[in-house]
Amino acid sequence: MPGTWRPEQLQRINDVIEKQTIGIDGGTGLPLVRPKNAGAADVLGAELEARVPLGALGLPEATLLANYTRQSAKLKDAATGTRRRLKDHPEDLGNLIARWENRRIGFAASAGLNYVGEAVDETVSPRKVTSPFLQWDASIQQRLGLGISLQASALNLLDEMKVKDDGLRREEERVGRTFYLGLNMEF
Q: For residue 8, what pLDDT band results from cuts at 50, 70 and 90?
């Protein structure tokens, strides 16, 4: 089973932009939000990835792919000088993808389950928590010849919603389904 392990990768991100609530709209009662420079962030994480060919199960053109990332992203807030988690940044990410590819006819199809873990906004009181989120995606690709292929993808097939809760108010954000159709050219 081929796989990779990438422990403790550290990355510095300068000039992180986050949304800042600056008030409440008098007409709608909704928060007024603007982007702001929050400071520099350090992201430390580890990633585990595996690729399992399914030929032993009689599926020589099929592969199962899995990936899990654990990360910690903290910044020194430019306004307060304190260290905190990046706003709305999950610590856990993962996916599981089943892929079938027939190179002879130039066709590939995949279906995947993507997981985004809990995200926290510590810039508000009480802190706001975005619940873990699962999303089903699918794609197909057909080679047309001469380095050209047609691709179609569908994201969030079950139209799952993101839920944010601060203990006082619960928000449901409809992410929606997204469909892509594209022509890929290799040169």
A: low
Give the residue extent of every domain in the chain.
3-185
Dump the DSSP string for the chain.
--EEEEEEEEEEEEEEEEEEEEEE-TTT-PEEEEEEEEEEEEEEEEEEEEEEE-GGGT-TTEEEEEEEEEEEEEEE-TTT--EEEPTT--SEEEEEEEEEEETTTTEEEEEEEEEE--EEETTSSSPEEEPPEEEEEEEEEEEEETTEEEEEEEE-TT--EEEEE-SS-EEEEE---EEEEEEEE--
pTM of the model: 0.77
Termini Cα distance of the chain: 32
Closest CA to 76 of 35, 112, 40, 22: 40
User: How far apart are the C-alpha atoms of 16 and 74, rounded to whole Å?
Assistant: 11
Highest mean pLDDT among 69-78, 140-149, 166-175: 140-149
**pLDDT, average across residues 7-25:** 80
